[in-house]
Design brief:
By secondary structure, this protein is α/β, with parallel strands linked by helices. The chain has helices spanning about 15-25, 45-55, 85-110, 120-125, 135-145, 150-160, 175-180, 190-195, 200-205, 220-235, 260-270, and strands at about 1-5, 30-35, 55, 60-65, 70-75, 185-190, 210-215, 235-240. It has 11 helices and 8 strands. Helix 5 packs across helix 6 (about 150-160). The protein binds zinc ion (ZN) and fe (iii) ion (FE) (2 copies).
Length: about 270
Protein backbone atom coordinates (compact mmCIF):
# COMPACT_ATOMS: atom_id res chain seq x y z
CA UNK A 1 0.00 0.00 0.00
CA UNK A 2 1.20 3.47 -0.90
CA UNK A 3 0.27 6.79 0.76
CA UNK A 4 2.00 9.87 -0.60
CA UNK A 5 0.37 12.54 1.58
CA UNK A 6 1.16 12.60 5.31
CA UNK A 7 1.89 15.34 7.85
CA UNK A 8 4.07 15.37 10.97
CA UNK A 9 4.99 17.74 13.78
CA UNK A 10 7.38 19.40 11.31
CA UNK A 11 4.22 21.27 10.24
CA UNK A 12 0.67 20.83 11.50
CA UNK A 13 0.60 17.07 12.07
CA UNK A 14 0.33 15.63 15.55
CA UNK A 15 2.82 12.77 15.30
CA UNK A 16 6.61 13.13 15.22
CA UNK A 17 8.09 11.78 11.97
CA UNK A 18 9.39 8.53 13.54
CA UNK A 19 6.05 7.88 15.25
CA UNK A 20 4.16 8.52 12.03
CA UNK A 21 6.37 6.06 10.14
CA UNK A 22 5.84 3.42 12.84
CA UNK A 23 2.08 3.88 12.53
CA UNK A 24 2.23 3.73 8.76
CA UNK A 25 4.21 0.47 8.93
CA UNK A 26 1.77 -0.99 11.47
CA UNK A 27 -1.19 -0.37 9.20
CA UNK A 28 0.48 -2.07 6.26
CA UNK A 29 1.80 0.81 4.18
CA UNK A 30 4.93 -0.03 2.16
CA UNK A 31 5.73 3.27 0.47
CA UNK A 32 5.00 6.67 1.98
CA UNK A 33 5.85 10.31 1.58
CA UNK A 34 6.01 12.82 4.44
CA UNK A 35 4.62 16.00 2.89
CA UNK A 36 4.75 18.74 5.48
CA UNK A 37 3.73 22.28 4.61
CA UNK A 38 6.65 24.22 3.12
CA UNK A 39 9.28 22.22 4.99
CA UNK A 40 11.31 19.04 4.66
CA UNK A 41 12.42 19.25 8.31
CA UNK A 42 10.71 15.95 9.13
CA UNK A 43 12.13 13.97 6.23
CA UNK A 44 15.52 12.95 7.69
CA UNK A 45 13.94 11.49 10.85
CA UNK A 46 11.23 9.83 8.75
CA UNK A 47 13.88 8.36 6.48
CA UNK A 48 15.77 6.75 9.40
CA UNK A 49 12.53 5.32 10.74
CA UNK A 50 11.52 4.10 7.28
CA UNK A 51 14.82 2.18 7.03
CA UNK A 52 14.17 0.54 10.40
CA UNK A 53 10.66 -0.50 9.37
CA UNK A 54 11.56 -1.56 5.84
CA UNK A 55 9.41 1.13 4.20
CA UNK A 56 10.27 3.14 1.15
CA UNK A 57 10.16 6.89 1.78
CA UNK A 58 9.66 9.17 -1.21
CA UNK A 59 10.99 12.65 -0.43
CA UNK A 60 8.13 15.12 -0.36
CA UNK A 61 6.76 18.49 0.66
CA UNK A 62 3.38 20.25 0.30
CA UNK A 63 4.11 23.71 -1.02
CA UNK A 64 1.60 26.55 -0.85
CA UNK A 65 1.39 28.59 -4.04
CA UNK A 66 -0.83 31.63 -4.41
CA UNK A 67 -3.28 32.19 -7.24
CA UNK A 68 -5.87 34.98 -7.11
CA UNK A 69 -5.34 35.52 -3.36
CA UNK A 70 -6.05 31.86 -2.76
CA UNK A 71 -3.80 29.08 -1.55
CA UNK A 72 -3.04 26.33 -4.03
CA UNK A 73 -1.42 23.32 -2.41
CA UNK A 74 1.13 21.55 -4.56
CA UNK A 75 2.81 18.28 -3.64
CA UNK A 76 6.44 17.96 -4.67
CA UNK A 77 8.02 14.51 -4.87
CA UNK A 78 11.46 13.00 -5.56
CA UNK A 79 13.20 16.31 -4.77
CA UNK A 80 16.94 16.29 -4.18
CA UNK A 81 17.07 17.38 -0.54
CA UNK A 82 20.64 18.60 -0.85
CA UNK A 83 19.62 21.17 -3.48
CA UNK A 84 20.63 24.56 -2.01
CA UNK A 85 18.32 26.84 -4.03
CA UNK A 86 15.35 24.61 -3.16
CA UNK A 87 16.17 24.79 0.58
CA UNK A 88 16.42 28.60 0.29
CA UNK A 89 13.08 28.67 -1.51
CA UNK A 90 11.35 26.73 1.30
CA UNK A 91 13.01 29.00 3.88
CA UNK A 92 11.50 32.03 2.13
CA UNK A 93 8.08 30.32 2.10
CA UNK A 94 8.32 29.81 5.87
CA UNK A 95 9.32 33.38 6.58
CA UNK A 96 6.29 34.51 4.54
CA UNK A 97 4.21 32.30 6.82
CA UNK A 98 5.61 33.91 9.99
CA UNK A 99 5.01 37.34 8.57
CA UNK A 100 1.41 36.38 7.89
CA UNK A 101 1.00 34.96 11.43
CA UNK A 102 1.96 38.37 12.83
CA UNK A 103 -0.53 40.12 10.55
CA UNK A 104 -3.36 37.76 11.44
CA UNK A 105 -2.58 38.11 15.15
CA UNK A 106 -2.82 41.88 14.72
CA UNK A 107 -6.24 41.56 13.14
CA UNK A 108 -7.48 39.16 15.81
CA UNK A 109 -6.39 41.61 18.51
CA UNK A 110 -8.22 44.42 16.71
CA UNK A 111 -11.31 42.17 16.60
CA UNK A 112 -11.17 41.70 20.37
CA UNK A 113 -9.94 38.10 20.16
CA UNK A 114 -6.26 38.37 20.92
CA UNK A 115 -4.17 35.24 20.84
CA UNK A 116 -0.89 34.64 22.54
CA UNK A 117 1.26 34.38 19.46
CA UNK A 118 4.71 34.53 21.03
CA UNK A 119 4.50 30.79 21.84
CA UNK A 120 3.71 30.18 18.16
CA UNK A 121 6.81 32.03 17.09
CA UNK A 122 8.80 30.13 19.73
CA UNK A 123 7.43 26.91 18.30
CA UNK A 124 8.77 27.91 14.90
CA UNK A 125 12.14 28.92 16.37
CA UNK A 126 12.43 25.86 18.60
CA UNK A 127 12.57 23.43 15.75
CA UNK A 128 14.47 24.67 12.74
CA UNK A 129 12.44 24.28 9.59
CA UNK A 130 9.15 23.86 11.41
CA UNK A 131 6.38 25.62 9.56
CA UNK A 132 3.71 27.63 11.31
CA UNK A 133 0.45 28.72 9.79
CA UNK A 134 -3.25 29.20 10.31
CA UNK A 135 -3.83 25.75 11.89
CA UNK A 136 -1.61 26.74 14.82
CA UNK A 137 -3.37 30.10 15.11
CA UNK A 138 -6.66 28.19 15.14
CA UNK A 139 -5.33 26.08 18.02
CA UNK A 140 -4.37 29.26 19.88
CA UNK A 141 -7.94 30.58 19.39
CA UNK A 142 -9.30 27.31 20.77
CA UNK A 143 -6.89 27.51 23.72
CA UNK A 144 -8.02 31.09 24.36
CA UNK A 145 -11.65 29.94 24.40
CA UNK A 146 -12.50 31.96 21.28
CA UNK A 147 -13.37 28.95 19.13
CA UNK A 148 -14.63 25.44 19.76
CA UNK A 149 -12.26 23.71 17.37
CA UNK A 150 -10.07 24.36 14.33
CA UNK A 151 -13.00 24.31 11.90
CA UNK A 152 -14.90 26.82 14.01
CA UNK A 153 -11.81 29.05 14.16
CA UNK A 154 -11.49 28.91 10.36
CA UNK A 155 -15.19 29.58 9.80
CA UNK A 156 -15.42 32.53 12.14
CA UNK A 157 -11.95 34.10 11.94
CA UNK A 158 -9.32 32.64 9.66
CA UNK A 159 -10.88 31.22 6.51
CA UNK A 160 -11.07 32.98 3.17
CA UNK A 161 -13.38 35.97 3.56
CA UNK A 162 -13.53 35.72 7.37
CA UNK A 163 -12.66 38.89 9.35
CA UNK A 164 -9.08 37.98 10.31
CA UNK A 165 -8.25 36.52 6.91
CA UNK A 166 -5.04 37.95 5.51
CA UNK A 167 -4.48 37.21 1.84
CA UNK A 168 -1.34 35.30 1.16
CA UNK A 169 1.30 36.73 -1.06
CA UNK A 170 3.76 34.38 -2.64
CA UNK A 171 4.88 32.64 -5.78
CA UNK A 172 2.32 31.31 -8.24
CA UNK A 173 1.89 27.67 -9.23
CA UNK A 174 4.13 27.91 -12.31
CA UNK A 175 7.03 29.13 -10.15
CA UNK A 176 6.62 26.14 -7.86
CA UNK A 177 6.67 23.75 -10.83
CA UNK A 178 9.89 25.28 -12.10
CA UNK A 179 11.67 25.45 -8.71
CA UNK A 180 10.75 21.83 -7.97
CA UNK A 181 11.85 20.72 -11.43
CA UNK A 182 15.23 22.36 -10.92
CA UNK A 183 15.60 20.32 -7.71
CA UNK A 184 14.94 17.09 -9.63
CA UNK A 185 11.35 16.74 -8.48
CA UNK A 186 7.86 16.65 -9.91
CA UNK A 187 4.62 18.33 -8.81
CA UNK A 188 1.19 16.83 -8.21
CA UNK A 189 -1.66 19.29 -7.69
CA UNK A 190 -2.95 18.48 -4.18
CA UNK A 191 -6.63 17.71 -3.49
CA UNK A 192 -8.05 19.58 -6.51
CA UNK A 193 -11.54 18.84 -5.19
CA UNK A 194 -10.80 21.04 -2.16
CA UNK A 195 -8.86 23.71 -4.02
CA UNK A 196 -11.65 24.14 -6.58
CA UNK A 197 -9.51 25.79 -9.23
CA UNK A 198 -10.08 23.42 -12.11
CA UNK A 199 -9.69 26.24 -14.61
CA UNK A 200 -5.94 26.46 -13.91
CA UNK A 201 -5.28 22.76 -14.60
CA UNK A 202 -4.82 23.06 -18.42
CA UNK A 203 -2.47 26.02 -17.92
CA UNK A 204 -0.43 24.15 -15.28
CA UNK A 205 -0.32 21.01 -17.41
CA UNK A 206 1.24 23.10 -20.16
CA UNK A 207 3.72 24.53 -17.62
CA UNK A 208 5.00 21.09 -16.64
CA UNK A 209 2.63 19.91 -13.92
CA UNK A 210 3.18 16.14 -13.65
CA UNK A 211 0.11 14.87 -11.85
CA UNK A 212 -3.20 15.39 -10.08
CA UNK A 213 -3.86 14.04 -6.60
CA UNK A 214 -7.00 12.16 -7.56
CA UNK A 215 -7.16 9.97 -4.44
CA UNK A 216 -7.64 12.03 -1.28
CA UNK A 217 -9.58 11.63 1.96
CA UNK A 218 -11.87 14.52 1.06
CA UNK A 219 -12.67 13.31 -2.47
CA UNK A 220 -15.80 11.21 -2.80
CA UNK A 221 -15.84 8.51 -5.51
CA UNK A 222 -17.48 10.83 -8.06
CA UNK A 223 -14.88 13.56 -7.45
CA UNK A 224 -12.08 11.02 -7.74
CA UNK A 225 -13.45 9.73 -11.04
CA UNK A 226 -13.84 13.25 -12.39
CA UNK A 227 -10.18 14.10 -11.67
CA UNK A 228 -9.04 10.77 -13.03
CA UNK A 229 -10.65 11.80 -16.31
CA UNK A 230 -9.22 15.32 -16.14
CA UNK A 231 -5.74 13.84 -15.60
CA UNK A 232 -6.13 11.54 -18.59
CA UNK A 233 -7.39 14.42 -20.72
CA UNK A 234 -4.29 16.50 -20.03
CA UNK A 235 -1.78 13.66 -20.08
CA UNK A 236 -1.13 13.88 -16.34
CA UNK A 237 -0.17 11.10 -13.95
CA UNK A 238 -2.22 10.55 -10.77
CA UNK A 239 -1.22 10.43 -7.11
CA UNK A 240 -3.03 9.75 -3.88
CA UNK A 241 -2.83 9.81 -0.13
CA UNK A 242 -4.72 10.24 3.10
CA UNK A 243 -3.47 13.71 4.15
CA UNK A 244 -3.30 12.23 7.65
CA UNK A 245 -2.49 14.79 10.36
CA UNK A 246 -2.70 12.49 13.44
CA UNK A 247 -5.51 10.55 15.10
CA UNK A 248 -7.08 13.54 16.80
CA UNK A 249 -6.35 15.71 13.80
CA UNK A 250 -8.11 16.11 10.50
CA UNK A 251 -8.75 12.84 8.64
CA UNK A 252 -7.74 11.03 11.81
CA UNK A 253 -9.08 7.60 11.01
CA UNK A 254 -7.88 7.44 7.46
CA UNK A 255 -4.26 6.34 7.71
CA UNK A 256 -3.87 3.34 5.40
CA UNK A 257 -7.33 3.85 3.87
CA UNK A 258 -6.58 6.25 1.04
CA UNK A 259 -3.85 4.85 -1.12
CA UNK A 260 -2.60 4.62 -4.68
CA UNK A 261 -1.40 1.67 -6.74
CA UNK A 262 2.16 0.57 -7.50
CA UNK A 263 1.43 1.13 -11.19
CA UNK A 264 0.38 4.71 -10.50
CA UNK A 265 3.57 5.33 -8.51
CA UNK A 266 5.67 3.86 -11.33
CA UNK A 267 3.93 6.15 -13.83
CA UNK A 268 4.50 9.13 -11.53
CA UNK A 269 8.20 8.28 -11.33
CA UNK A 270 8.62 8.31 -15.09
CA UNK A 271 7.83 12.05 -14.93
CA UNK A 272 11.04 12.82 -13.04
CA UNK A 273 13.18 15.29 -14.96
ZN1 LIG B 1 -1.97 20.50 7.02
FE1 LIG C 1 -3.31 20.59 1.55
FE1 LIG D 1 -1.81 18.10 3.33
Amino acid sequence: MIDLHLHTTASDGLLAPAALVARAAACGLKTISVTDHDTVAGVAEANDAAHRHGLRLVSGVEITAVEDDRDVHMLAYFIDLSNGPFAAFLEAQRSDRLHRVREIAGRLAALGSPIDYEPLLALAAGRPGRSIGRPQIADALVAAGRAVDRDDAFNRFLGHGAPAFVPRSGPGPETIISVVGQAGGIVSLAHPGLTEMDHIIPRLAAAGLASLEVRHSDHDPATEERYRQTAAQHGLAVSGGSDFHGDAGRRGSLLGCVTMSAGELAALETRRP
